[in-house]
Target: Replication initiation protein
Amino acid sequence: MRAAFVRPQEIGGGDGVVKAGELVDATYPDGASLSGAARKVLVLLLAKAAGDAWKDREFCITKGELRGRHKGNERLDKVLDELQRTLLRVRVRSPRGQDAVQVAAVMQSRTEELSDDAQSLVYWRFSEPMRLIMQASDHYAELQRQAVLAFDSRYSVTLYEQGCLRYRRQHPVWHGTLQELREMLGVPSGRYRDWTDLRRFTLEAAKVEIDHLAPFILTWQEFRRGRAVERVEIQFTPKDDNARAEAEAEIQRSRVGRKARRTGAVETVAGIAPEVAAELARLRKG
Model:
């Protein structure tokens, strides 16, 4: 894990975060799911713990780092509570070497300083199953912290992580049934029962953001039996150097105007005509 952490720091200018592949592919039991805010906080915790995240020790982070652009801490307790109580379902090998599923919490415990000051600290300890998964993993997704924080849709964060895990592979594809897609995305139970709604509010909403900010393009293909969609294949295609550089530049820009830049709706201010400039100069002189 230390080696996985060093690579994005050297290549990504210190903004890289590594997340074990098993955690990227984790699903949520009983229809539970992490909100977009909780997913982002988990990435921030992994970034803070860095290459030592697998160790049995306590880490700390300021409330200012966790709350980001939000001024108050009122949302922070709810997000941390959500992260602490939500269980992950992770594919592992059993003690006798068989395919198995481990269900575990992300955090074992946390301690918060009572002050609302941005420099007050939150201490936390990852759960033992989480630490063992990170310690044993041999494949990691290299995430860019600023990219994760830039996404608005919770499904954009999830699919961005999936893409970062796969887009450098020879076959950069995720595939599964509709039920497996729901589990991977963490779609709450009972929501988007129709494929049209599921596609519109998850894949299509995420594609708009990912194609704008990620180093890859998101596409998918539907496989049907008759009129019913049975299986979906999602592909993460690497961008060329110019497109990747533009995505990186957009991440560094202000969030203000991002949607307009994405849709091409930004207005360009025309140059001032010479006669208008002369009249303005005359008026300034009185």
